[in-house]
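Researcher: I've been going back and forth with a colleague about how D-lactate dehydrogenase (cytochrome) might be arranged in three dimensions. Neither of us has a model we trust, so I'd like an independent prediction. The organism is Azospirillum brasilense, in case that matters for your notes. Sequence below.
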Amino acid sequence: MLPAPYDRLHAALREFMPDERLVTDPLRTLAYGTDGSFYRLIPKIVAIVEAEGEVVRLLNLCRELKTPVTFRAAGTSLSGQAVTDSVLVLLGDSWRGCTIPPGAATVTLQPGVIGAEANRKLAPFGRKIGPDPASIATAKIGGIAANNASGMCCGTAQNSYRTLASMRLVLADGTLLDTGDAASRAAFAVSHGALLSGLSDLAARTRADDKLAERIRNKFRIKNTTGYSLNALVDFEDPVEILQHLMIGSEGTLGFLSEITYNTVPEHAHKANALLMYPDIGEACRAVALMKPTPVSAVELMDRASLRSVEGKPGMPDFIGGLGPDASALLVEIRGEDAAALDATIAAVSAVIANTRTLFPPTFTTDAKLGESYWKIRKGLFPAVGAMRKVGTTVIIEDVAYPLDRLAEATVELQAMFLKFGYTEAIIFGHALEGNLHFVFTQAFDTDEEVDRYRRFMDAVCDQVVRKYDGSLKAEHGTGRNMAPFVEMEWGPQAYGLMKEIKALLDPQGLLNPGVILNDDPEAHLKNLKAMPAAHPLVDTCIECGFCEPTCPSHKMTLSPRQRIVGWREISRLEATGADAARLSALHDAYDYQGIDTCAACGLCSTACPVGIETGLLIKALRGDRRGAVAQGFGNYVADHTAGALSVARAGLKLADLAKRTLGNDTANSLFEGLRNVTGQRLPHLPRALPTPTNFTPLPQAKASADAPTVVYVPSCTSRSMGPAANDPEKTPLPVKVEALFQKAGYRVAYPEQLASLCCGMPLESKGLAAQADAKAEEMVRAIWAASANGTAPVVLDTSPCSFRLKKHLKDAGLQVLDLVEFIHDHLLERLTFTKQTEPVVLHLTCSTRRMGLDAKMKAVAAACATQVVVPEDVGCCGFAGDKGFTTPELNAHALRHLSKDIPAGAKAGYSNSRTCEIGLSDHSGLPYRSIVYLVDACSTPKAPATASTRASEPAF
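Model: Here is an independent structure prediction for D-lactate dehydrogenase (cytochrome). You can compare it with whatever you and your colleague have in mind.
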């Protein structure tokens, strides 16, 4: 039951927003209310908006009922600016518009576009957006602009403020303004003349005060996101320009940004990197100052503690361990529009570096792999601290900027402060060209003593940054709640007064994100601190950054990986403390479906997680905890009788196929869904592209030539039992097609003994039956070891999840287990002659393909077969997840909701390397999806005479 006036607000919102987009339950308000900061507030209502008109009506209602509103994009912000205990507004799917005009000099983006997606769309034009925050693969344009987020290369010249062309915004009173539209500006001048006059007056007063105006200009010569963008008052006279530039960095406290047009910047493909080692921080900072006037793109500083945190880790250079106690590093990147320009820049920068004292001879490399290894050091710093922290602590990354000529002195003082306050694990790194340092440390908030330690430390940091160096307390992470109590300290009462006037002009009721940027409570940064209780060893290192979310198929349907961990942490806390039994029960009830049943456990989240957490492992463990003696016994039976279980599956497919042929597809599907609903979803959903049954049994192989190489082929359970769909023009079962392709390429095909009983254990693992799954994997390893003559022949699996599982499970390095795509790319392409087809090919890269690093090889195989290969850009995990497409079909539908828009005209088939994934892909695209083997076979002929083989069709039973 919502308290007043939220009950009235909820009722009013329901008049124009559906219930599924108005969240009030305890699990999702907690989970959706979480951002990347170390603050926790739980919203009363989470409203997921899909249109500008909804935002306008929502703001009008909130103004009428005096309920505060906070806007959220991706929730990666670090300073507490995206949490609230009132109304949280999230962006739905409809805010992903991207318009690129001819020439790509500008790009118009809606706030739900992920920054990296914008850059992917601009890449063919050699352009990109200016802002480049480290979170760009997750952060959305709305948050990037609202926080004036920057990064390693953009500096102060290419951030959102400097590259803004125009925007559409909704003010607190619900008024819409399009600053790029003359008619909208004219109408706004009539309706809001007083507001524009107020801004003009503020700007005129500021410019008339030479001392104040000069202070503002100086403050923004280095990175600064503390407070509002007061530089708008001295940079512009047009009040609309002032208004739209004030919106940049306003953190949702002045209005809602519904669209932004950026001036794009060049993205040069030619790059070179150098990792420079210096004897101490002073010499490193002196080198930075010398490089500042040169055409370098990025200079990243790393102190000795930073380098020590990644010492000895895989891929790190050996020399790190031998560095002295005061050594520091600079990672330098330079770019050029062509090779000649790059060479000239390398020469110019090298000449400057020659005047500094490096520990090793400075060398620039254009080798992409080596450059990537250098950046791996820099990008591994934050996760290194996060992974080694104690359970119950959080990782805090602070963000300050100093005048460049005093950077060395300030850095040494920071290092001394870490020791003084007991932060012995703290590290310093940052964007040195801009005097911008990040320092990372771990902090508990579970005792008054720990909170007081943090308070005293932050007081000391603020005093040093502001009073000694006149630097920026927040350089690029935004003010939020974290630095709101210190804004006046940094800016002084006169400039702070300007900020209050700006807020009063644009949000007179103070309803937009109150407590953020401006906050009169001197201890606001010490309140509503987020607890990080122990939940499970598999996820306790989670820092709740949200980088995982774009990879998750259930994100925006139920919970993301971050949100699953947040929910389980709260459940674990309540169980440990015995507090609030009613809340615990409600969370448990909701978590069964939201957290456990709708998790695909695909593991893609681990590829984006800074500390490598695979949330699916937690969910599998929880599924295992739910399996009682009966379920365990059933798992044992299935493991011991795999051939029989597959026979039952074939029988089910046969009956379903018979019903569809007899009644017609539509009638049969309606009947099946009706029965499923009557039984409370206990019966499986039967997709339109349901496979027909098949039964593959190896036949004696034709005699091959004496020098023919051998390959051991292991068709998966699904390949041996699921044939093509009834409506697929292709009727040959996958194992038959694979066998024929291998023979076409001149291979002798061998199979392990007792193939009908073999399984890698993936279906059992996904159900949480880990012991049974591992036993099946061990059984398969023994069988393929024997079949491969003790590892002398390669072993190929035709289903990518099975390949990935077996590769992870292998203990004997002598066994060559390859995924089918891997084998085709590495061994068959050179043995076949290809004729490219002209019709487009649609490719699905499965989760396991991506996790095995085979996506490039799969694209290369497809490119050998077709002139046009399309990988739908908005499809990651398909959500079928083994059997989830049968038991939880809404997950599959949600994951593939954007698939059809990317299917090119003329495409007649899609290709992948997982039979179950192909079922859902076929259902939701309207195209038959099948293994990429079918494409390779159709487009290839043997370079040498193939081994003859005759195979009669086999019964399914």
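Researcher: What would you highlight for our discussion?
Model: I'd start with this: The mean pLDDT is 94. After that, consider the following. Residues 647-942 form one domain.
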